[in-house]
Amino acid sequence: MKMSFRWFGEGQDNIPLQYIRQIPGMYSIVTSLIDIPVGEVWPIDRLKTLKEKVNAYGLHLDVIESVNIHEDIKLGLKTRDRYIQAYIDTMKNLHEIGVKVICYNFMPVLDWVRTELERKLEDGSYAMAYKEEDTVKIDPKDLNAQMEKQSGGFSLPGWEPDRLKEMSTMIEKYKYVSEQQYWNNIKYFLDGVIPYAEKYDIKLAIHPDDPPWPIFGLPRVITNRQNIQRFLDLNKSPYNGLTLCTGSLGANRENDLPSLIREFGSQGRIHFAHIRNIKYQDGRDFHETAHLSQCGSLDMFEIVKAFYDVGFDGYVRPDHGRMIWGEKGRPGYGLYDRALGAVYIQGLLEAIDKMTNGR
Ligand SMILES: [Mn+2]
Description:
Layout: E1 2-6, H1 17-21, E2 28-31, H2 44-56, E3 60-65, H3 71-75, H4 80-96, E4 101-105, E5 116-120, E6 126-130, H5 132-137, H6 140-150, H7 161-164, H8 167-173, H9 179-200, E7 203-207, H10 225-234, E8 240-245, H11 246-250, H12 257-266, E9 270-275, E10 278-280, E11 286-288, H13 300-309, E12 315-318, H14 336-357
Parallel strand pairs: 1-2, 1-12, 2-3, 3-4, 4-7, 7-8, 8-9, 9-12
Antiparallel strand pairs: 5-6, 6-11, 10-11
Helix pairs in contact: 4-9, 12-13, 13-14
The structure holds manganese (II) ion.
Manganese (II) ion is lined by residues 207, 245, 247-248, 274, 319.
């Protein structure tokens, strides 16, 4: 497994690349051009500059998260072909700077959803949390305002202003898209881009819906074993694969993570892993935690062991961390707790490897 770390780019992230480089075992940066409006081609000159910058710190730039999908593609509008072409052009430019994996998602309008960005935990750290009843009560517009208020002045990935401008109108438009139609729209996108993913040798890795159930009546389909297999079968190229995010899929207690990892990993369809823990509360409620098994509800040893056993050699990153030691930053994306997560994952791996192969 190649360890990686999400970084939001120059002027967007308050964590210096120098600090990321100092996390033991760090191999690649996971980043994006967060300011490019969805649907536009990412300029090659900016990508080259970005790559040089990252390489100057001894780090690779192998994974992009995310190249967002234009809403017209998700809605299946006539204008989608233009945006699919832009996606392909962006892939070509990413190929030129040597990118190996693109993580993206197909969640309508909203990206990941939490109802609290800074819940204070018992030890005085802060973590993101989700309370089902709050999503039922709140108007989507207000959720956006609430997210913004709690984000400490940082833009939130997946909550970029350009995709949220017309949130209510957008949600309205999905009333006319059935779930079957939505699946058709995903397939149309895949069949358009996957031949180019093969040509440019870039693995596409869809991120599961987070949390993995419908919110505000919007279709959310990348949620469980059955739907993931359905997704993979839409286009059987090995370039059509997954970001296996343990925290997202794990929010549904029925998702048996080690078994999902074994199943899709042995098919060679997992290209990127997000490893983090969450703590279950009542019903569907949960809050995020430190990465360690003892801090949450997921068994991180079994998760890492499953990746190890299927010979997963792709990219992995610690996912959302808590805010600890007084750090101020983008919710979920502070330096300290994610660095602890990165080292913990590598500790598990070393132990599993040595116990398997002898010392
Ligand atoms: Mn994730």
